[in-house]
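During the reporting period the student researcher (J.K.) took over the structure-prediction task from the postdoctoral fellow and processed the backlog of single-chain submissions. One of the processed entries is reproduced below for the supervisory committee.
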Amino acid sequence: MASVITNPVTNTNSDRSKRKKKKKSMVKEINQQSQKQSHARWKTEAQQQIYSSKLLQALSKVSLNSPPSPPRGGRAVREAADRALAVAAKGRTRWSRAILTSRIKLKFRKQKRQRGFAAAVAAVTGSNRSKKSRVSVLKLKAPTVQRKVKVLGRLVPGCRKEPLPVILEEATDYIAALEMQVRAMSALAELLSGSGAASSSSAPPPQSPPPTGQ
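J.K. obtained the following structure tokens:
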């Protein structure tokens, strides 16, 4: 009878691989469930109310400042709405963390621009122009899908240099959050317009001047 000799090393390796596969599948299921919960959270009425309260607080801070010009005022409102959205996300996603840290990065960028303005002007030479032309040629040769992924990564905050799976996950959550933002701001605009119309209708009619004696 031929005796079957089992190798303990191969058995331990197979057990480890099975454990790793099981662990990966469990982590994947947990991530998928958390993604579904986060996407569904933006569709709830409670989350919209939370965001609306944070939006009102942010807009009140913007209105307390000195009245800016119309383009800057619209930009300030948009930045306040985006910051309120990131605060409502509690920094659990890349895009929300990128929005919350964008103001700090902008300050450092302004300082760097002021320091390196003279160097940047001096660096515009023929060699730099040739490099720019080479880069443009390489970009034209890039595949269409890769270019679309880069564009999508630029649209989603904090995903400029991330791989495709991360970009898709963040974009799905970001789009759901933006849809909720539109619903909340539309409801707020309707509420404000309704209150304005009610106040104008409740105002007393203007009195006619008394007749002058002839």
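The committee noted the following: Residues 129-138 have pLDDT under 50 and may be disordered.
J.K. will present the remaining backlog at the next meeting.
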